[in-house]
Design brief:
globular; 75 residues; 51% helix
C-alpha cells in the first residue's frame, strides 16, 4: 500500500504522522531533521517545498526520491 505525502503539510505534521520520513529526509539532505528542537520549531512552519528552497535543493528530485520509496505525492 502506497503512503501519501501531502506537500501542503508542514514537516512537523508529516513526521508526526509518519516518523519514517525523518530518516528518509535526512538521507535526502535535510540534515537538521534529526534535531528534535529544529523539528519542533522550524518544522512547524516549513513545508518540504519551502525547505527545498531554503536548502537550494531541486524539489522535483526530492519528489522523485519519495515516489521511488513508495509515496504518492499530493500537491
Amino acid at each position: 500500500m502506497a503512503k501519501t505525502l501531502d506537500l501542503s503539510k508542514t514537516v512537523y505534521e508529516l513526521c508526526k504522522e509518519d516518523p519514517q520520513l525523518i530518516e528518509i529526509m535526512k538521507e535526502l539532505g535535510f540534515d537538521h531533521i534529526t534535531n528534535t528542537a529544529s523539528l519542533n520549531t522550524v518544522g512547524r512552519f516549513v513545508t518540504i517545498p519551502k525547505g527545498t528552497v531554503i536548502k537550494s535543493m531541486d524539489l522535483e528530485k526530492i519528489k522523485s526520491e519519495f515516489i521511488k520509496k513508495g509515496y504518492n505525492i499530493i500537491e
